[in-house]
Amino acid sequence: MKSIRTKLKLNNKQKTLLAQHAGYSRWVYNWGLSLWNAAYKDGYKPNARKLREVFTNHTKPLYPWMKNLSSRVYQYAFINLGEAFKRFFKGLGKYPKFKKKGRSDSFTIDNSGKLIELDGWSHKLPFIGVVKTYEPIEATTKKITISRQAGDWYLSCSYEFNGITTAKKTDVIGVDLGVKTLATLSDGKVFDSVRSYQKFEAKLSRCQYRNRNKIIGSANYKKAQLKIAKLHRKVANIRRNALHKLTTYLAKNHGSVVIEDLNVSGMLANHKLAKSIADQGFYEFRRQLEYKCQWYGSELVVVDRFFPSSKTCSNCGHVQDMPLNVRTYDCDYCGVSIDRDLNASINLRNAVGLTVNACGRSAADSSGGSRK
Ligand SMILES: [Zn+2]
Predict the structure, then answer these.
(1) Is the dihedral of CA 321, 322, 323, 324 positive or negative?
(2) Taking the chain, what is the end-to-end CA distance rounded to the nearest angstrom?
(3) Active site residue 117
(4) Beta carbons of 51 and 179 less than 8 angstroms apart
(5) What's the pTM?
């Protein structure tokens, strides 16, 4: 069993609907808790199931607004209350407290016994309707919990993990992550870079400059801070989307994806490169590729960072110096002339079968079989 938690992208109507459900869940939980306390005082031995019966038959009909909300929510509120008491009786938790509005607003919902399929960027949830997420997710689950944190809503669930194997177009692909381009693949495909920071940087620094004399904590200051935070978020989102597109494409269509183990900290010491690299998000690239290769049943091969992918001729194997500003590899030995990044990506593809560090299976293992 694995679990995911991801942020939801919602319109105002949906936010209201979720807030209503969280409110419903809280209302029922608190109602149950107060009745539990009262019943206990009167010498009864309450439990969540009995309380739910009372609620369903006598209390719910008195509140017509509850009819507009999913009835699964109150079922789970009682389950949660029962579990809170179970934990308390076992000495694992404190005595259950009343829930306060705005603090850990959440509710749980299911599909009345049917499974809920989450796939891609938008998802049909029972009763709630279609919601979008900021990253593509894949899971089949029985129930989901939706919660609010710092004004944002999150979906979380646990699911049984089983990798999906998709038909692969290409057996092995080498990927060169670049500064000028986001990525160059060994089959010649190029993913353009999203210069998100560069594009928004001027705007951002203008914002920050204008904010310099504002009194900290004032209304104007807060307004400007919010604007800056939004710009930062926008930049991050553009970058994440570009990376998701790239990593999904790679994991879905290729049996083995070969990348270089970039010495990011070493490269970040070079200030000119630093910004570009941070902008392209190499760590995030690797993280996404790792879990997506698992999803789609492909293999991620990480080549040792001392492998001279840029300096080696992909045609004849000759090694020559390649300063960063030289964009074309002109081989001194065989005379081939090829784009620098394409040359590097072909070398990475060819590196499978050589001695490399592999993620998961070793590259030596993976060189056998279908590629021979
Ligand atoms: Zn050559």
Answers:
(1) negative
(2) 36
(3) no
(4) no
(5) 0.57
Q: How far apart are CA 133 and CA 120, in angstroms?
A: 8
Task: Please state which CATH class domain 170-193+244-371 belongs to.
Answer: alpha beta
Q: For residue range 284-300, what is the model confidence (pLDDT) as tens digits?
A: 888 889 888 888 888 99
What are 157-193's pLDDT values in tens digits?
988 766 566 677 778 999 988 767 889 999 999 988 7
Residue 229 or residue 152, greater confidence: 152
Q: Which listed residue (260, 279, 299, 339) is catalytic?
A: 260
- Name the pLDDT band for 372 (thresholds 50, 70, 90): very low
The pLDDT confidence band at residue 151, using thresholds 50, 70 and 90, is confident
Q: Which of 346, 185, 78, 108 is nearest to 331 (CA)?
A: 346
The answer to whether 42 is a known catalytic residue is: no
Please identify which of the residues 110, 299, 339, 341 carries the catalytic annotation. 341
121 C-alpha to center of ligand 1: Å? 44
Give me 265's structure tokens.
Answer: 């900290």
Dist CA 179 CA 136 (whole Å)? 26
Active-site residue flag, 260: yes
Catalytic position from the list 105, 110, 176, 299: 176
Two tokens, residue 218: 């004032």
Instruction: Report how far residue 246's alpha carbon sits from residue 318's, in angstroms, rounded to the nearest whole number.
Output: 30
Domain edges within the chain: 2-156, 170-193+244-371
The Å distance, Cα 266 to ligand 1 centre, comes to 29
Phi, psi of 306 (to 5 degrees): -90, 0
Q: How far apart are CA 93 and CA 76, in angstroms?
A: 19
| Tokens, residue 335 | 């005379």
Is the separation of the CB atoms in 273 and 238 below 8 Å?
Answer: no
Please give the pLDDT value at position 143: 93
Q: Strand pairing of 106-110 and 143-149?
A: antiparallel
